[in-house]
Write a structure and sequence with these properties.
This protein is mainly alpha-helical. The protein has one domain. 58% of the residues lie in helices and 6% in strands. The chain has 14 helices and four strands. α1 runs antiparallel to α12 and α4 crosses α10. The longest helix has 23 residues.
């Protein structure tokens, strides 16, 4: 890839930092207003902020449920089967898992879907990556765990929980040609053995291999960003972690983009995701 000069890199980071701060203004001001922030201070502060269209307005009053999708019981069955296929493709490790689970469970409790049972997993991999699958399964790589401090790791985990809140993977599955067969199989599934479980495993193995349920549109990424950052204060995390996380990713992208997994490389880059 083209080498980026130091001045160009600094200019890009400056623009990105400004955009991310605007992103946090859009989101955090919709969560709660602390008592010390009087109407006069709000007006005075707002006057210093340029007026932009709010790209997150469609998400502010959204309501989330499994209506029109797999019911939650079958979603959890699906997640269990998908996780079995993930373990065949990736090497899971306990390294860093306690830290990931501790932060992740805080993100889950602060989310708009706190009653789902969330299971956090760490994959042994040099790529910096993370993804989530239906039924409450969230995965991050050891490279990401090593790279991120608590707030930065929390930003990624809250983002992935956001995908689960919005049921993005379920919506993708609903549009697929395999949906009816999978839905019928889940309805009949009573265990992990037998012909139904075997056939379902084959179908889901192909889906996991293709990464179909972990690829999201730009709007879905924005929605997960929105839901994730809104959950961070309630999880005891500093939303500025989103800024510093993307700054780190930009620097890595400029040095060696091969280190970025599908979470970052298959989607709009860090700059575009918040424009």
């Amino acid at each position: 890839m083209r080498k980026v000069s130091k001045s160009e890199s600094m200019n890009r980071l400056h623009r990105h930092n400004k955009s991310l701060r605007l992103f946090l203004v859009f989101i955090i001001t919709s969560v709660a207003v602390p008592g010390w922030l009087t109407p006069e201070r709000i007006v005075k502060g707002a006057a210093a902020i340029p007026q932009y269209d709010d790209p997150y307005s469609d998400f502010r009053n959204a309501r989330y449920s499994n209506a029109g999708l797999l019911n939650e019981r079958d979603e959890i069955k699906l997640g269990t089967q998908l996780h079995r296929e993930v373990t065949k493709k990736y090497n899971l490790t306990d390294a860093g898992l306690d830290r990931v689970d501790r932060i992740g469970q805080r993100c889950a409790r602060a989310s708009l879907r706190p009653n789902l049972v969330y299971k956090f997993h760490v994959i042994q991999d040099r790529e910096i990556n993370g993804f989530s699958l239906p039924g409450g399964h969230v995965y991050v790589t050891t490279a990401l765990v090593r790279l991120a401090n608590e707030n930065e790791l929390g930003a990624v985990l809250c983002h992935e929980v956001g995908h689960l809140v919005a049921r993005h993977s379920l919506r993708t599955l609903k549009k697929s040609k395999e949906y009816d067969d999978i839905a019928n199989s889940l309805g009949e599934l009573t265990g992990v053995a037998g012909s139904i479980a075997h056939d379902l495993g084959v179908s889901l193995g192909q889906i996991v291999g293709a990464g179909m349920l972990t690829m999201h549109s730009r709007d879905e990424e924005r929605e997960a960003d929105f839901l994730g950052v809104r959950a961070m204060p309630g999880a005891g995390l500093d939303p500025q972690g989103m800024i510093t996380m993307f700054q780190k990713l930009l620097r890595i992208e400029e040095r060696d983009s091969d280190l970025l997994g599908s979470l970052f490389s298959d989607h709009p880059d860090a700059q575009e995701r918040i424009e």
